[in-house]
Predict the structure.
Amino acid sequence: MFSMMEVEVYIDLSIIEKMEKSLKECIFYETGGILLGKFNNDYSKAYITELYEIENTLSQKKLKYIRNVENAQNIINKRWKDSNGIINYIGEWHTHPNISPEPSNIDIDTMNQLYGKVKNQIPIIFLMIIGINNQLRITSIGGICKCIHIL
């Protein structure tokens, strides 16, 4: 449905602050969750406005995070309904304690699988990883991040 698009990304500062807090609180294991937000009418701008931490189904493994799918979907469904279809799933986030925020091959494979499930509804999804020294990396699947704005 969508061709490879260039998308400007707008991120609420509170998202980054919450990720920094999670990294600080969970220094011995990975944690993460989902990103919610919205697109403008022509999908040229994405607004990442909400972050939810979802428990790790692996009982806090140091180097692997797999979110609880059912809990994540319940949050997505509730926010979609509560916002009259405006707020929707827009990506994933997780921490890399003690290492760089570079996505692993597993991270990329997982994001490609997730994109395969949503690509008919949205043109792009994002993976935000925060790592050692609060380094932040944003990766996109399905499109290109034209530029990133912190609000």
